[in-house]
Amino acid sequence: MTLVCRRKHIPTLECIFFHLRTRTGLFLIGAGASAGLSPLGAAFWRTSPLHYLKEARSFAPTAAPRVLLTQRMIDHSGIAIQDVFPNRELRPGSSEYPLLERLNRLPDAFARENLKHVLARVRYLARTEGTTTDSYRVFHGLFPSIIADYNHDGLAREFCGPTHAIVEMHGTIHPRYGSPEFGAQIANMAEFDVTLPGDNLVMGIPESWADAQLRQRLSWVMSSSPQYIAIIGYSFAKMGSGYDDAVSLASFVRRFKHYPGAIFVISPDPTQLCEMLSDALKISTVYPVKRYWNVLAHAYLKMKQDEEKFRSLDNAYGFLFDRYGSDQVFPILQQV
């Protein structure tokens, strides 16, 4: 079955999902697969700093050096005074709020634990209230495959069922972290600069070749022989001109150089990653799929329910995107 756009030889959405339904694949999923559910991009970096600035009642008199994750939150949060005090009127002559001075005192333990709480809330609600999401429920109808999950939220394991082999590449957060009770405990940590034991999560920092767990997971994933590869909402954690997930990228390139199958890069902006992988792998079958995964997954499930409602999967996607935009969670969930 060949369903392609002959003008550019780019597979149609129907062709892509035909692969996903009928063949064994390898999925690499990143934050974009949890769009609308977990923070990504700027929202990821500002989660803990903004909470700290708004809620903490005190801060340390001196600023001590921060660990890399905390420092990145400080450097990349992009927080302005209007974010902290949205209704505050700044009159001429008002003293300048010490925003940067307070940010530089963001406690390491609070920054990390609060982020874990935010990332775990959806999974906690799934277990306590039965919430679900089409972004992962769509995998129920796909052929058994390997899912290399680069997120920490645990949603792939929670929602995809036992059909697929799921490997949590950077570790996952226990759903109890998402409870309101745990959130209240974490909020108290904003007042103190305490030290907590490590949690083995590779979160917001570069991978290391010395990480034995990561190497073991990569060895298992890269030993597979998929008939296609789908990269969903994942960029190997590109930071500036480099990649935080450089170990994973090097392993991927080494394993799949001259790969004979198709590689689908599903992302709102897939071009740069496609070009890099095409050059590194020495192949011309890396296909950009410029779509938001949450909208595309829901469109596919709607088409499965009523194939006569839309002319094509692309038509269904366009209708849903025009109506709801890119941030909507499907099915529509309560605010988490």
Describe this structure in words.
This protein is α/β, with parallel strands linked by helices. It has helices at 13-22, 42-55, 68-76, 81-84, 99-103, 108-129, 134-137, 155-159, 180-188, 212-222, 246-256, 271-281, 293-305, 313-324, and strands at residues 4-5, 10-11, 25-29, 146-149, 165-168, 228-232, 238-239, 242-243, 262-267, 286-290. The chain has a 6-stranded parallel sheet, with helices on both faces. A two-stranded antiparallel ribbon has the order 1-2. α2 crosses α3, α2 crosses α6 (108-129) and α10 (212-222) packs parallel to α11. The longest helix is centred in the middle third of the chain and has 22 residues, at 108-129. The two termini are 42 Å apart. The model is unreliable at 1-8 (pLDDT under 50).
Give keywords:
single chain; two-stranded antiparallel sheet; 336 residues; six-stranded parallel β-sheet; disordered N terminus; alpha/beta; Rossmann fold
Globally, the shape reads globular
Strands of the widest sheet, in order across it, are: 5-4-3-6-9-10
> Which architecture does the CATH hierarchy give at level 2?
3-Layer(aba) Sandwich
H/E series: EEHEHHHHHHEHEHHEEEHEHEHH
Say which CATH homologous superfamily is assigned.
TPP-binding domain
Percent of residues in helices: 40-55%
Structural class of the secondary elements? alpha/beta
Low-pLDDT runs: 1-8
- Measured by DSSP, the beta-strand proportion falls in 5-15%
CATH class: Alpha Beta
Based on CA atoms alone, the radius of gyration comes out at 21 Å
Overall number of domains:
1
